[in-house]
Write a structure and sequence with these properties.
By secondary structure, this protein is mainly alpha-helical. The chain has a two-stranded parallel sheet with strand order 1-2. Helix 11 links the parallel strand 1 and strand 2. Helix 2 packs across helix 3 and helix 6 packs antiparallel against helix 7. The chain is globular.
Length: 281
């Protein structure tokens, strides 16, 4: 939604991302009808990022339903008015978007009580980013919000929020990445490890400009980081990760297996091979 509201940044989202954003924003809109809206009304190449609901044929309007069409049109009109005179900071955009539209009746955040905390964390992340590097980015002639979205798209994690861990109740279910769970340092009775065949359990994010090992003060000057170091580091990271998870599990671990990755290809990661060796032994 931020990319749609700032077309001058040139960060046009993919049609499926637009469909998923509409589905997450509009209450009662399923993914199939959201996909139809995105396919017909999302035309970034024409200059009109989202076209009005009335541009649909009557048959298509009835298929979407006029109730959902009205909610779509209110959201589209809000984004269109925002593009005329957008504020300077991206955190202001999310503050207004949540308060004026997404938290209102007819939108999913109206009933989701935890959504306010999620949006607040996002706003804090953007604000902290603006405070830390905003002057430098603006001095180079770029936009702080544009750079933030670009970094999020590249997979750079923006911030951590310890307060949300502290407010968890004892009988709650915590859904979090493995490293986030370890940083909270809390024991649990049961753990569910999802998609253990994925390489994401041990592969690092590709971030050459923030390489945590080469840019370490203890790294030998002139030494080249090769595939050998990458493999050894990945195996050591996986070992530490699994050790930490098992030491914080009192009773049982459930393994979630998936033969195909998100792109539809077969996946047999290092963790799955290690688990198979344990079962065979």
């Amino acid at each position: 939604l931020a990319a749609l509201a700032h077309p001058q940044w040139g960060l046009q989202p993919a049609p499926f991302d637009v469909a998923y954003a509409l589905r997450e924003a509009i209450d009662g809109l399923d993914l199939i009808r959201a996909q139809l809206l995105a396919e017909v009304l999302y035309r970034p190449q024409t200059g009109a990022i989202l076209r009005p609901f009335e541009d649909l044929t009557p048959d298509m309007q009835q298929r979407i339903t006029y109730v959902l069409g009205e909610r779509y049109e209110r959201l589209r009109s809000w984004l269109e008015k925002y593009t005329v005179n957008p504020p300077d900071a991206l955190d202001f955009f999310f503050n207004r978007l949540f308060g004026e539209r997404l938290s209102q009746p007819g939108y999913r955040f109206h009933h989701a009580l935890d959504s306010g905390k999620v949006v607040a964390n996002l706003i804090d992340s953007i604000r902290n980013f603006r405070w830390v590097v905003g002057e430098q980015i603006e001095a180079e002639g770029a936009s702080v919000g544009q750079e933030y979205l670009r970094m999020v798209r590249d997979g750079l994690i923006a911030s951590q929020y310890v307060s949300s861990w502290e407010t968890q109740t004892a009988d709650a279910v915590l859904l979090a990445p493995a490293h986030t769970f370890l940083m909270s340092n809390r024991p649990v009775d049961i753990q569910f490890w999802l998609n253990v065949s994925s390489g994401g359990w041990y592969e690092r994010l590709y971030q050459p400009l923030t390489h945590p090992y080469v840019l370490n003060r203890h790294w030998e000057p002139g030494r080249i980081w090769t595939d050998k170091e990458e493999v050894e580091t990945s195996q050591d990271t996986l070992n530490r990760l699994l050790t930490g998870l098992l030491r914080r599990c009192r009773r049982k671990v459930y393994l979630g297996l998936s033969d195909l990755d998100e792109h539809g290809f077969d996946q047999k990661g290092v963790l799955l091979k290690a688990i198979n060796r344990v079962f065979r032994g």
